[in-house]
Amino acid sequence: MKKLILLAATAALASLNPTQAQEKKDYPQPEAMRPGMSEYWTPQPRVVTPGDIKQNTAPSDAIVLFDGDDLSAWMTPDGKPAEWTVKGGVMTVDKSKGDILTRQKFGSFQLHLEWRVPKDIEGESQSRGNSGVFLQDMYEVQILDCYKNETYVNGMTGSIYKQTPPMVNAMRAPGEWNVYDIIYTAPIFKEDGTYLYRPYVTVIQNGIVLQNHTEIQGTTEYIGFPRTVKHGEGPIRLQSHGDPSQPISFRNIWIRPL
Ligand code: MG
Fold first, then answer.
1. What is the whole-number distance in angstroms between the Cα of residue 133 and the centre of ligand 1?
2. Concatenated DSSP letters for 31-73?
3. Ligand 1: distance of its center to the CA of 241 in Å?
4. How far, in Å, is the centroid of ligand 1 from the Cα of 49?
5. Is residue 236 in a domain?
6. Which domain holds residue 138?
7. pLDDT per residue over 185-230, tens digit each?
8. Could you tell me if residue 49 is inside a domain?
9. Residue 230 belongs to a domain with what CATH number?
């Protein structure tokens, strides 16, 4: 009985102060950090020379799609030479000739293009300087004269057409050049043809963000909802829209595959 009481008393003491029973042990401490421990030097990113800001030229590693001289980088949907009008360093949509596409196909990329709506443009809503740039020939970023011209917001300039409106309206007035910088991440598909990762796009117009890493839902349909269509690399398509307003112009188009 005495022994039992003693055991119980010992256990009670140990539970009151459990650390007392543990042996104190010194473990090695992490080495003190020095700045150089979290800095690495290789591989160095390759050097790219930026375009000349006054002459508005492309970066040194860009693929130039239109530099003002000719349409050799472009073709019709059935592979014939593109026949839009080239004059004074500018190409202008010829609505009788239809859309044009780059001969080269691309995956993810950074695309720069400049576009201008004629100063004397007429029409309203979607019938006013309508064009568009199709990423991988599948997903349209809308081009439209939205300067003091309202339309459905998911069809405005800089919308992912019929999907996501732009965050703001960053239009310059007709007759002035608008600048698009588009950063696009191509989708990855599962074997069954559905998206594993959908495409994403960032759209900047005149230095102002319109789309910030926006998820693209699928094809940009005029009628109906986005569809999932499995595809690989694809061309850039510029739209020759059938609206009756005067045709828009493009210049200084270049792309950097990413
Ligand atoms: Mg369009």
1. 8
2. PPP-GGGG----SPPPP-PPPPTTTTPPPTTPEEEE-SS--TT
3. 6
4. 33
5. yes
6. 63-257
7. 999 999 999 999 999 999 999 999 999 999 999 999 999 999 999 9
8. no
9. 2.60.120.560
